[in-house]
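<instruction>
Derive structure tokens from the sequence
<data>
Labelled lines for chain and fold
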Amino acid sequence: RDPASDWSSDVCSSDLLLVAFPTHGPTSGGTAITIKGDRFDQLKEPFCVFGGNLAIQSAAAVTEDSITCMSPPSSKGNVSVAVGAKNIEGWFSTFSFLYVSAPRVVSMDPTTGFLTGGTLLTFKLTDLPFSAEVSCGIDGREVVRTSGRYLDQSAVVCESPRTQTGGLVIIDLHFAGESVRSGFGFRYLEKFAVGSMTPSLGQ
């Protein structure tokens, strides 16, 4: 007896709770969406169906308890996503996926800080993915990224990363792995030190 027949019968006749993540991604597509469930390895050529236009994406990866599909390009807004396979009738596990415009940095303050890092930077953005984790780094440099936090739905703050080399750099932000270049220059300065002071006495 084909175990896949039992599997599809179970799915059609019972409530199978599935979890999908992430729940949002850019309109350009390319977000790897992982759907958690059970016995997915018994599916024949599983796929995901996105939105009312029935955009079908073959599963990029399949394990016993997960399926991964890549989101196709789409316009901004919520779409329904369903999972199907060639050896079952219809679809199952519909869930919602939100397409968002790529965030864009419109301002950054301040624009200078020291090599030791720790300067608190405030970024104003449009189309900010409010639920995503955020971190800051330096474009083109290997540095330890710093964690950021949301001020509101249009602003985030994070500390400038520590670096060994001064000069003008571009700070980049990561939102759940998606990189966004700030587009604003940030200049790293040497820590200043007082060598002498004149006069040494005063009235």
